[in-house]
Write a structure and sequence with these properties.
By secondary structure, the protein is mainly beta. Helix content is about 0%, strand content about 20%. The chain contains no helices and 8 strands. The protein has a 4-stranded parallel beta sheet with strand order 1-3-5-7, with no helix packed on it. A two-stranded parallel ribbon has the order 2-4.
Length: about 110
């Protein structure tokens, strides 16, 4: 939290295969690129609250099969595509409040 992060590159946080909790809240992230979290197979919790996320690419969450808690509160998300979340097979808690979601898309 609070690190002034503006960008996470493709595969930007790889090689952390044992990581279970990642908190990137209160930064300046605008986009979640494809494969950003690639290789974080044990990640259980991901907090991206209070950023400026408005774009989530189709494979941003690929390889997060163990993720159970995802929080994207207080961002600028307008479109949420359910297909993009299909990689999150163990997700039990999704927080999206205080966004600008206008479209929930299944394709």
């Amino acid at each position: 939290d609070y690190n002034n992060i503006k960008n996470l590159n493709d595969k930007g946080v790889t090689n952390l295969s044992k990581l279970i909790d990642l908190r990137l809240g209160n930064n300046y992230l605008e986009s979640l690129k494809n494969y950003t979290f690639y290789g974080l197979k044990k990640l259980d919790r991901l907090n991206l609250d209070f950023n400026k996320v408005s774009n989530i690419e189709p494979k941003a969450f690929e390889s997060l099969e163990s993720l159970r808690y995802l929080s994207l509160r207080n961002n600028q998300i307008k479109l949420l595509n359910a297909y993009y979340m299909s990689y999150l097979i163990n997700l039990i808690n999704l927080k999206l409040d205080k966004n600008a979601i206008q479209i929930l898309d299944n394709e």
